[in-house]
Specification:
Blueprint lengths: L8 H24 L1 H8 L10 H29 L1 H20 L4 H29 L2 H26 L4 H19 L6 H6 L3 H12 L4 H17 L5 H8 L2 H20 L1 H16 L5 H25 L2 H27 L9 H28 L6 H53 L8 H9 L21
Length: about 475
């Protein structure tokens, strides 16, 4: 079942992006759901009483399941293809929301969070693969960035809805996003890249033309030619040749880059603001401020900036976005350290409420405008087709560990070195990541995925393709 052929290729790409984003929106709701659930469960008349340990597990167990989801996705993507994989990731999400709707004890809620985390973890590599392979080079960055908009919007919606109605009714509304995504998946074509990797070249051409029209024949020719060469020499991966694969530059370089980009994302502070926002606002702005007001203001700014990031990715070079926002984030961290130290030392020259408010808003802007979106773009562009599933899954698995460690250690670091110490440590790590990225990160804007892969390998395929189908993308080596 597909969308009608009369629909333009661009609109079909938009539909693919909307299908994936609807699923990501549901993941965002699941991630932000504890902020709705836990306060209601701690009320005196709650039918499900909580201990401190249970409260902690409800909030954090999703990251453990995400790791399992990350690692399970490569086999699914390779064996079943992108479309069937998208069907499958909806199933644990639906089960998770249903378990919450009918939960009457903590154990069922924990099981529900595990199912949600499994779906979330599987969706992280899948969304990058699907949007990266289905979309045109000129639109790919913007489409990949919409996933961050969807995730942020999901967290905002669940917080908004959950503040108005019971947590079970909130879950009932949230499950609708997953069901809509499941229905939309019926109308998706299969990935041309996956079809080519399986030697199904006629189907590859058919689905490619559905997605791209007939204006991008050069990319199609490059894709098929590269897959023919790869399939002709393909060997089964085992312990003996796995070492050789790991030593290939097209395998280890994208993973190294992706790991440093994800580490930058987590130390930049976006996730800490989402989870420990009240504490962070109080420590930086002072105990007398209305932390909830400022968190809502930051949430609104995050959504607006995420939307602006789609434009930035469309119009600006990837490296320009990454390093301009990364440097801004580093400067903000150093400024927060200086401000907090001065206030603690009794230096009141800069003791104005607008200064820490401006710093927190600049931090949010830097993360939402470039630091976080660039991670999604890198995941969807940099990995070669042969290792795309396993590379993204391995990278996101390590990123999940970063996520877990950052969230777990933040309270202890704050207690031991203060908020200024935490920002100082994070600022140092940000600087390290930016230095490594400067040398590893290529410029991928406007390139086809095959051109990015060929440049990683040092392959010049232009001489093998008819000159009438050449694209104008640059051919400099990374």
């Amino acid at each position: 079942m597909y969308l009608p052929f009369a629909i333009s290729p661009f609109l079909i790409q938009c539909f693919v992006c909307a299908t994936v984003s609807m699923n990501v929106l549901s993941n965002g709701c699941a991630y932000g759901f504890p902020a709705v659930l836990l306060p209601q469960l701690k009320l005196p008349d709650s039918p499900i009483p909580l201990t401190k340990a249970q409260e902690s597990w409800i909030a954090s167990i999703i990251t453990i399941a995400m790791l399992v989801g990350n690692l399970s996705m490569p086999l699914i993507l390779d064996k079943l293809g992108r479309k069937k994989a998208h069907f499958l990731v909806n199933i644990p999400a639906v089960v998770g929301w249903l378990l919450i709707i009918f939960a009457n004890n903590v154990q069922i809620i924990l099981l529900a969070r595990l199912m949600q985390g499994l779906s979330f973890g599987q969706m992280v590599p899948l969304r990058a693969v699907v949007i990266g392979e289905y979309s045109s080079p000129k639109n790919r960055g913007a489409f990949l960035t919409t996933t961050t908009v969807a995730q942020t919007l999901g967290m905002f919606l669940v917080h908004l809805i959950g503040s108005l109605i019971h947590w079970k009714m909130t879950a009932l509304i949230c499950i609708s996003f997953t069901l809509i995504s499941f229905i939309m998946t019926f109308f998706l074509p299969e990935s041309p890249s996956w079809l080519a990797s399986k030697g199904r070249y006629d189907e590859c051409k058919q689905h490619f033309h559905k997605l791209r029209g007939d204006q991008e024949e050069a990319e199609l020719n490059e894709l098929i030619q590269a897959r023919m060469e790869h399939n002709a020499t393909k060997t089964v991966i085992n312990l003996k040749n796995s070492v050789e694969i790991v030593r290939k530059v097209e395998f280890y370089k994208p993973i190294l880059l992706f790991l440093h980009v994800t580490l930058l994302v987590y130390v930049a502070g976006g996730m800490n603001l989402a989870v420990y926002g009240v504490a962070i606002v109080g420590l930086i702005m002072g105990p007398g401020v209305d932390a909830n007001f400022w968190l809502v203001e930051i949430d609104i700014l995050r959504i607006i900036t995420n939307i602006l990031a789609v434009y930035f990715m469309k119009m600006c070079l990837r490296r320009t976005v990454a390093f301009s926002t990364g440097v801004l984030c580093f400067i903000v961290h150093i400024a927060v350290v200086a401000h907090v130290i001065m206030i603690k030392q009794g230096i009141t020259l800069f003791d104005y409420i607008w200064i820490p408010a401006l710093l927190l808003n600049l931090q949010c802007f830097a993360i939402s405008a470039g630091v976080l979106p660039i991670m999604c773009v890198i995941a969807g562009e940099i990995f070669p087709l042969a290792y795309r599933s396993i590379g993204i899954s391995f990278g996101t698995a390590i990123a999940t560990l970063f996520h877990f460690l950052i969230l777990k250690t933040f309270p202890y670091l704050t207690s031991s070195v203060g908020i200024e110490g935490v920002y100082g440590i994070y600022g140092s790590v940000i600087l390290y990541c930016l230095i490594v990225m400067w040398f590893l990160m290529p410029e991928t804007k406007g390139r086809t995925l095959q051109q990015i892969e060929d440049n990683l390998k040092g392959v010049d395929r232009s001489s093998k393709i008819d000159c009438n189908t050449k694209t104008s993308a640059p051919t400099d080596k990374f």
